[in-house]
């Protein structure tokens, strides 16, 4: 056994074990017990608070031997966050006062509360507890089965963080398509009643038109068992993510990493409807029941991050590469004025710089990325009007939640009734043509009636 409270050569009463980790090691034995108590004498009032277990040790692996009155208590520390000077009263399910005091300047009190008393043949629970917080004459009542919180954070780079006392303000991750990024799911206990978390279950959803799951990744040894769930990239679902631990976590009101999902984004260029993104991944979470020391509850989903996928605007045929097919569509719109003709030609797409005409500036932008894959293009190479509002460098940025990112961004498409001018006949006039060189584009002046290769 890890703890032998009473044996044939002596016994104990009124012991306290606080914040210990009990580890089962060695080969399995049928006579193993994490806690052993009793011989032929009374052995009572043994308290275990905030214990952690590894290797198969647990409160359920106990053994009472002999006769006489024998017991032990299991308990946990509950933190209550409130304004300095508030009064806090905690009563168990029978109405017995377990704690009464005043919140100090630090804004938090801690109380050791019994969860249950274990006897040789029965278990008596004291939960749930009722917590009354009085601030300025106003009393707010809570129960210790208070809902924990889960929150989603999107990151463009994997993090080694498994727990943190705080998370950044909610924002939208803006990323270019065909890049990998991560959705981190964090859990913490209730913001007012701070206690431990033993585990829970979670489902996730996303829009499969704009992304797919690459992997649900391991999140660290703080969760001792669990499942990464089942991914369906057709329906946009991840079902059955579970985590459990015998070493409870989150007791200091910290956010603990529950799941990490790697995504790859995809954003279409819809030249016919003049819709060019960005597109909202619409990631969502549906938590199941989470286990805590004083009860179980379904968490509240805290306001978290979103993810918007920006298309590489030059890849009009959406094949992941900027090649001759994209150039052919551009050539049909070259030297046109936006709104001059019904679409196609797709002048609203080809007018990359947004000056209302498809001319050399647009061609220069396209030529700079010719023969690149979409995963090689960064926001530096995108037209300014197709970059996120807070972008500085690279292929991603975080955009504060209060800045709008419309979904999708679109422009009006001209109809035949909106044509304001007939096209000018170009026969015999000098017109640029595109000459494809090895890995680049060049312009030459050819006498031609239209753009050609």
Helix proportion:
under 10%
Q: What is the CATH domain class of the largest domain?
A: Mainly Beta
Provide the structure class. mainly beta
End-to-end Cα distance: 83 Å
Low-confidence stretches: 411-453
State the domain count. 3
Q: How many individual helices? A: 3
Task: Report on the architecture of this protein.
This protein has 453 residues and is mainly beta. It has three domains: 3-143, no CATH class; 149-310, Immunoglobulin-like (Sandwich); 323-368 and 423-453, no CATH class. The protein has three helices and 32 strands. The protein has helices spanning 324-333, 347-350, 360-368, and strands at residues 3-4, 16-18, 21-23, 35-37, 47-49, 52-54, 62-64, 72-81, 87-91, 97-102, 108-118, 123-125, 130-135, 138-143, 149-155, 163-164, 171-176, 180-188, 193-194, 197-205, 211-217, 225-232, 237-249, 255-265, 279-280, 284-292, 295-297, 300-301, 306-310, 396-400, 430-437, 440-447. The strands form eight sheets. Strands 2, 5, 8, 11, 12 and 19 form a six-stranded mixed sheet that branches. Strands 15, 16, 18, 21, 24 and 28 form a six-stranded mixed sheet that branches. Strands 22-23-20-26-27 form a five-stranded antiparallel sheet, with no helix packed on it. The longest helix has 10 residues, at 324-333.
Keywords:
mainly beta, 3 domains, single chain, 453 residues, 32 strands, six-stranded mixed β-sheet, Immunoglobulin-like, disordered C terminus, 5% helix
Question: Strands, helices and their partners?
Answer:
Blueprint: E1 3-4, E2 16-18, E3 21-23, E4 35-37, E5 47-49, E6 52-54, E7 62-64, E8 72-81, E9 87-91, E10 97-102, E11 108-118, E12 123-125, E13 130-135, E14 138-143, E15 149-155, E16 163-164, E17 171-176, E18 180-188, E19 193-194, E20 197-205, E21 211-217, E22 225-232, E23 237-249, E24 255-265, E25 279-280, E26 284-292, E27 295-297, E28 300-301, E29 306-310, H1 324-333, H2 347-350, H3 360-368, E30 396-400, E31 430-437, E32 440-447
Parallel strand pairs: 1-4, 2-5, 3-6, 4-7, 5-8, 15-28, 17-29
Antiparallel strand pairs: 8-11, 8-19, 9-10, 9-13, 11-12, 13-14, 15-18, 16-24, 17-30, 18-24, 20-23, 20-26, 21-24, 22-23, 25-29, 26-27, 31-32
């Amino acid at each position: 056994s890890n703890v032998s409270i009473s044996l044939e050569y002596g016994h104990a009463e009124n012991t306290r074990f606080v914040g210990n980790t009990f580890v089962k090691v060695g080969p399995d034995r049928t006579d193993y017990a994490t806690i052993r108590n009793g011989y032929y004498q009374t052995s009572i009032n043994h308290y275990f608070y905030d214990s952690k277990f590894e290797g198969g040790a647990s409160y359920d692996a106990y053994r009472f031997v002999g006769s006489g009155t024998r017991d032990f208590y299991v308990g946990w520390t509950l933190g209550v966050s409130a304004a300095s000077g508030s009064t806090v009263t905690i009563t168990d399910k029978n109405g017995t006062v377990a704690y009464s005091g005043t919140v100090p300047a630090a804004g938090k009190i801690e109380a050791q509360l019994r969860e249950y008393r274990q006897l040789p043949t029965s278990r008596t629970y004291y939960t749930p507890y009722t917590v009354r917080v009085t601030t300025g004459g106003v009393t707010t009542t809570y129960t210790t089965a208070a809902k924990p919180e889960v929150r989603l954070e999107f990151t463009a780079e994997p993090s080694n963080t498994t727990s943190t006392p705080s998370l950044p303000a909610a924002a939208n991750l803006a990323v270019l398509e065909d890049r990998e990024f991560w959705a981190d799911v964090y859990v913490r206990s209730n913001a007012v009643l701070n206690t431990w978390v033993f585990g829970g279950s979670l489902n996730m959803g996303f829009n499969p038109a704009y992304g797919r799951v690459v992997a649900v990744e391991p999140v660290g040894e703080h969760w001792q068992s669990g499942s990464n769930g089942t991914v369906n990239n057709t329906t946009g679902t991840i079902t059955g993510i579970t985590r459990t631990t015998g070493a409870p976590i989150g007791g200091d009101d910290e956010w603990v990493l529950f799941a990490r999902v790697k995504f790859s984004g995809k954003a279409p260029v819809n030249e016919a409807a003049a819709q060019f993104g960005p597109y909202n991944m619409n990631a969502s979470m549906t938590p199941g029941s989470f286990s805590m020391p004083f009860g179980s509850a379904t968490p509240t989903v805290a306001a978290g991050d979103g993810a918007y996928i920006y298309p590489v605007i030059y890849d009009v045929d959406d094949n992941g590469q900027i090649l001759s097919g994209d150039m052919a569509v551009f050539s049909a719109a070259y030297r046109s004025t936006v709104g001059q003709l019904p679409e196609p030609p797709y002048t609203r797409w080809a007018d990359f710089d947004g000056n209302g005409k498809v001319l050399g500036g647009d061609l220069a932008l396209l030529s700079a990325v010719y023969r690149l894959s979409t995963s090689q293009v960064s926001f530096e190479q995108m037209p300014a009007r197709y970059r996120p509002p807070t972008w500085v460098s690279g292929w991603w940025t975080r955009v504060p939640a209060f800045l709008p990112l419309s979904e999708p961004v679109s422009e009006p498409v001209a109809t035949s009734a909106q044509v304001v001018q007939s096209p000018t006949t170009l026969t015999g006039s000098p017109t640029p043509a595109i000459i494809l060189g090895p890995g680049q584009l060049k312009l030459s002046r050819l006498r031609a009636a239209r753009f050609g290769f």
